[in-house]
Design brief:
The chain has 236 residues and is α+β, with helices and mostly antiparallel strands. Helices cover 30% and strands 21% of the residues. The longest helix is centred in the middle third of the chain and has 14 residues.
Length: 236
């Protein structure tokens, strides 16, 4: 059985970090064994997604599945941009994130990324990763601050609210430029009271932050097919 979206996303975050994290913070953010195990366990498959192994592989950049046909016309892009602007109070309100810090292989994970990873094991000790359900309905259950980018084409979605778990993972495609999508999420995050950091690791732009016990991580990459691929992880 192939590892699913959640397992492929969250461990990637643990390879990256904020360059400003000091040694004490890094030590305090270290994952406990239960969280690490949960993140590396394979998740149960959703019958509705049976036979989609190549599609799943494409999302993680390891397969050869074709990108679905997405409307990349100027009209479609402008419609998405306009709606995104409405959701932040106008185009003048969109703020680009700080320039990304490029990370090496020896960096420790940031607080936001550790928070997202720890969501696989709730405070009560439940293994949230094992409770994840794969269905597109989870794309509509993201936190209000982090919706799928307007007119985004959802490829896969997973999540759980069982017990003390509150985890969402959604992968989608949009023809809008990567920089504009990141600006949307950065603006939404800051308006909702989250902090934010922007790094670049393994070819991905990664925007992440926390607010109390909640966290978000946005993985973004521009594909050769002329679309932006986003993997969005949120916890609450």
């Amino acid at each position: 059985m192939n590892r699913r979206l959640l397992v492929s996303l969250v461990p990637v975050a643990l390879l990256a970090s904020c360059g400003d994290t000091n040694e004490d913070e890094a030590a305090g953010d270290a994952m406990d064994p239960a969280s690490e195990q949960a993140l590396n366990d394979e998740l149960s498959s959703d019958p509705d997604l049976a036979g989609r192994n190549e599609a799943n592989a494409a999302l993680s950049g390891t397969g050869n599945a074709a990108i679905p046909n997405i409307d990349k016309s100027p009209r479609a892009i402008e419609a998405a941009r306009s709606r995104a602007a409405e959701l932040v109070g106008g185009r003048s309100e969109l703020v680009s994130p700080p320039t990304a810090k490029t990370l090496g292989d020896d960096n420790a994970p940031s607080a936001a990324m550790v928070a997202a990873a720890r969501a696989a094991v709730s405070p009560g000790g439940e293994n949230c990763g094992e409770k994840v359900d794969y269905t597109s309905a989870w794309a509509a259950k993201l936190p209000a601050a982090f919706p799928v980018y307007p007119r985004g084409n959802t490829q896969e979605a997973a999540g759980t609210d069982e017990g003390q778990c509150a985890l969402r993972v959604v992968s989608f495609l949009t023809p809008v430029a990567l920089e504009e999508v990141l600006a949307f999420y950065y603006t939404r995050a800051r308006a909702a009271g989250y902090n934010a950091e922007h790094i670049k690791s393994a070819g991905d732009n990664i925007l992440s932050g926390t607010k109390g016990r909640s966290a978000y991580v946005v993985y973004a990459r521009r594909l050769p097919q002329g679309v932006t691929e986003i993997d969005l992880v949120t916890t609450d």
